[in-house]
Amino acid sequence: FSRIEDIRSIYRGSIDTESLQRLLDKYKIDYIYYSYGEKNEFPNGIHTLNSYNFLQKVYDSEDVKIYKVRN
Question: What is the Cβ-side half-sphere exposure of residue 7, based on CA atoms within 13 angstroms?
């Protein structure tokens, strides 16, 4: 997959937890940002992100959610 397809699979929740963790490591992702653009393309993405126990919501407003990847 390309980086864009990998990112889409994260927001869609179309990969298993182990694959997600590999992608986070591959791209050295420490934070995941979810706002207006992501909401438009991935309306269920917020539920996907909330479902992973290794993501900690560190910022939460009406328009923006930021998740920290816990090791």
Answer: 12
- Nearest Cα residue to 46 out of 30, 19, 64, 28: 64
The DSSP symbol for 70 reads P
| Assigned token pair, 51 | 């479902």
> What is the DSSP secondary structure assignment for residue 63, as one 8-state letter?
S
Calculate ∠ Cα 53-23-39, nearest 5°.
65
For residue range 12-30, list pLDDT tens digits in order: 988 899 999 999 999 999 9
What are the two backbone dihedrals, phi and then psi, of residue 57, each rounded to the nearest 5 degrees?
A: -70, 120
Please name the helix (run of DSSP H) or strand (run of DSSP E) that holds residue 15, with its range, or none: none
Record the pTM.
Answer: 0.88
